[in-house]
Design brief:
- With 437 residues, the protein is α+β, with helices and mostly antiparallel strands.
- The protein has four domains: 98 residues, no CATH class; 94 residues, 2-Layer Sandwich (Beta-Lactamase), CATH 3.30.450.20; 70 residues, Signal transduction histidine kinase, dimerisation/phosphotransfer (DHp) domain (Helix Hairpins, Orthogonal Bundle); 153 residues, Histidine kinase-like ATPase, C-terminal domain (Heat Shock Protein 90).
- Helix content is 51%, strand content 20%.
- A five-stranded antiparallel sheet has the order 2-1-5-4-3, with helices on both faces. A five-stranded mixed sheet has the order 7-9-10-12-11, with helices on one face.
- The termini are far apart.
């Protein structure tokens, strides 16, 4: 910049000296000086005007040819234009590669802007959501009108809402035979990506599995009832030889266990296939805890010290039978996996996050490696010990589905050898104040 100023000043001095010398030779040096400087000023203004017109026209084409300081500025703009053009070409090439890559994906990708309006989508998303090229700029909820998705995307697009949410599953627009999962990920200010996956095959397989389990479990009920009835008759009548007493007792125990397994499978199938929302029963937490504690004491047979601590009675709105099943499963597990004489505590407390029912034992504990899989069907930390206790391996899976239907969740803390604490966490909207303690 300094070199340009010195160069332009040098030109000005040369012009001034030249016109002055010419003026002395003609006898009118001051007039020659004024004319020379006026011409020089006009020349500068003309170059400035040309450059200004070029800028006003959006810098189309190369910068105007000029000399002096405006020539240097034009050269700088030309170099910037070339650099900008190369960077633009690189960005276009990168954008084409990204678009080609996303076009090859089987998952649908939809880019949203301006609070949920369609900005761009790949062919897979267009095919699954039936989007047309002229749909750009319209809200996505115009094409996916399911109320669950409308609520889901509105929650995700809120300015300060960055909480993690599970993908939502719903039928494809205009084709109920296809099942899609949609996951909304927000970025930037008002922008988001929607990942669309076709899970029809997985959904159908899962439905077949549920139907199979439900049907088989239902069909097993009748023969198990018949077997149990005959075994009970043989044991009560004394008709069987003495050497058959032990086999009959073992057969009866296994029949009871099999019946319990079938009942749990039927309950789990019902929980999976019923509506996500729970019932409208008003369940007193204090009464439920006392009932579950009594049942746990009967199961324990006096081998454990079972205490109940209910800081404040509350009413949970939901399904009374399902809530009893969830509470009882945790209490019974504590009895089954705690050593004789060990204390077991059933506690209820409330805070700003809602209500929390915790069952604390001093049993064998669980390694942190196993905790994420505890709610899987038939998953056992210690298979041999679980079978000895008579468990079916479905208790925590039932608890998980009961909690899903009540907008609640399960948390587990455990230390091997020192016991475990299982906590059911209920949201505030599910609770109302009960009777005072």
């Amino acid at each position: 910049m300094l070199d340009r100023s010195i160069g332009e000043f040098s030109r000005f001095i040369v012009i001034a000296l030249g016109t002055t010398i010419f003026g002395f030779s003609s006898g009118h040096w001051w007039l020659a000086l004024c004319v020379g400087l006026a011409v020089y000023l006009f020349w500068l203004l003309w170059q400035q005007n040309s450059f200004d017109r070029w800028l006003s026209n959006g810098r189309r084409g190369p910068a105007p040819t000029a000399f002096g300081v405006w020539g240097d500025i034009s050269d700088d703009f030309y170099r910037l234009q070339r650099r900008h053009r190369k960077e633009k070409q690189k960005l276009h090439a990168m954008l084409r590669r990204v678009q080609d890559s996303t076009s090859a994906l089987r998952e649908g990708i939809v880019a949203l802007e301006d609070e949920g309006n369609l900005a761009w989508w790949n062919p897979a998303a267009g095919q699954m959501l039936r989007l047309q090229p002229d749909d750009a700029g319209q809200p996505l909820v115009n094409f996916i009108r399911d109320p669950r998705f409308v609520e889901h995307i509105h929650l995700r697009m809120r300015r300060h809402n960055h909480s993690a949410q599970e993908p939502i599953t719903l039928p494809a627009p205009g084709d109920d035979s296809r099942i899609l999962t949609l996951e909304v990920t927000r970025f930037g200010q008002d922008e988001a990506l929607v990942i669309v996956r076709d899970v029809t095959r997985l959904h159908n397989l899962e439905q077949m599995r549920r139907d199979f389990v439900a049907n088989v479990s239902h069909e097993l009920r009748t023969p198990l009832t018949v077997i149990a009835g005959y075994l009970e008759t043989l044991q009560a009548s004394g008709m069987a030889p003495q050497k058959w007493e032990r086999p009959l007792m073992q057969m009866s125990e296994q029949t009871v266990r099999m019946t319990s397994l079938v009942n749990d499978l039927l309950l789990l199938a019902r929980l999976e296939t019923s509506e996500r929302d729970s019932g409208r029963d008003r369940v007193s937490v204090r009464e439920l805890m006392e009932r579950v504690a009594g049942e746990a004491r009967s199961l324990s047979g006096g081998r454990h010290d079972i205490a109940v601590a209910c800081e404040q009675d509350n009413i949970i709105t939901g399904d009374a039978g399902e809530l009893h099943s969830a509470f009882a499963n945790l209490a019974f597990n504590a009895v089954k996996y705690s050593p004789d004489g060990g204390p077991i505590e059933l506690r209820w407390k409330t805070d700003t996050d809602g209500g929390h029912f915790a069952v604390k034992d001093c049993g064998i504990g669980i390694d942190s490696l196993h905790i994420p899989r505890l709610t899987e069907r038939f998953y056992r930390v210690d298979a041999g010990r679980s079978r000895e206790s008579g468990g079916t391996g479905l208790g925590l899976a039932i608890v998980k589905h009961v909690l899903l239907r009540h907008s609640a969740n399960l948390s587990v803390t455990s230390t091997p050898g020192r016991g475990s604490t299982f906590t059911l966490n209920f949201p505030p909207q599910k609770l109302t104040p009960g009777s005072s303690a």
